[in-house]
Amino acid sequence: MRGIKILNMKHKYKIIVLLLAGITAIYTSCHKLNMAPTNQSTVSKKEASVQIAQSLVGIFNPENGGFDFKSGLSMPTDLSLNKKGKIKVQSVDPQPQCGAKMDTTIAFNLDQSDTSKIDIWAKVKYELTCTNGVPSGVTANDSLNMTMAGSGFTMVLKMGENLILRSLNPGVEHAQYSFDGPVNYYARVNYTKPTTDQPNVEGTFNYNFKSIVVDPTKDPDFILSGSAAFSSKGSIGKNVWNYKGTITFLGGHKAKITIDGTVYTADLMTGEVN
Question: What are the pLDDT digits (tens) for 80-133?
Fold first, then answer.
């Protein structure tokens, strides 16, 4: 798959790890289930906030999958997909042209054995925007579908992003930028023989990000401010959650998650919640 020519925002999809991060985000609360009668959820608000925090880890940190937001608005020209299921940027256009567009689809499958299979389908659509002839932003529309089958289990991941990214200082390399838009994230794992310790799990996380300010030179604290509204629902065995709320990004890789007036502080590097 080397040599696929594409103009897009510099980012790396570590797809297999992203899938596992999504499953982890759903699975971590399976041993701590409490009643939340206001919306008939049987997973507590605290444990739901853990699911939300860990899904954000997957979205914002490339080592767990998703955009490499720390790379700013640079424009790669070469994209490859290797046999481990990782989409990787190979080269960057140092002087991208205003109005540059790309719309392409990538498919990949790997049958390691009769019981171990991976199927990946990804669609990427990007356009470079300019202000007074100077590159100033990117519109990014991505969708990803992945299925994985192993001995005794199947996994499904779906992720969609529709983002508008704007430089806060057009024409300046590595300048701060902001982004807005929705990100939808879904993961499911089914076991041939589910147990109490290893139940079937499923989760959906829908975010609408607003004025997220990013400084690509500050790692790991590259998210400086902004907010999001979210809705999340899912199931762990026979237990369910269904919550809506807001997120305020505080800087210092921290965020405030509010559900029905209850506030939790999340670590965007570890997914831990206090």
Answer: 555 444 555 555 566 777 887 777 777 778 777 667 888 888 887 878 888 888
Instruction: Report the amino acid identity of residue 166.
Output: R
Nearest to 137 by CA among 182, 100, 87: 100
Q: Which residues pair with 159 in a beta bridge?
A: 144, 185
- Residues whose CB falls within 8 Å of the CB of residue 14, separated by 6 or more in sequence, listed in order: 62, 63, 64, 65, 86
Whole-angstrom Cα distance, residue 38 to residue 263?
Answer: 16
Give the domain ranges of the chain.
Answer: 4-267
Q: Contact at 8 Å (CB) between 122 and 144?
A: yes
220 cis-preceded (ω within 30 degrees of 0): yes
For residues 88 and 68, the answer to whether their CB atoms sit within 8 Å is: no
Segment 243-246 long-range contacts (CB within 8 Å, at least 24 positions apart):
243/36, 243/39, 243/41, 243/45, 243/48, 245/52
Q: Which amino acid is at 20?
A: L
The CA-atom distances, in angstroms, between 215 and each of 21, 28, 226 are 24, 30, 12
Structure tokens at 127: 């356009």
Residue 272 contacts by C-beta under 8 Å, 6 or more apart in sequence? 50, 53, 266
The CA radius of gyration of the chain, in Å to the nearest whole number, is 19
Token pair for 62: 């490339």
Cα three-residue angle 35-191-157, rounded to 5 degrees:
80
Hey, what are 50's tokens? 């853990």
pLDDT digits (tens, 9 = 90+) for 152-190: 999 988 888 899 999 999 888 889 999 999 999 888 989
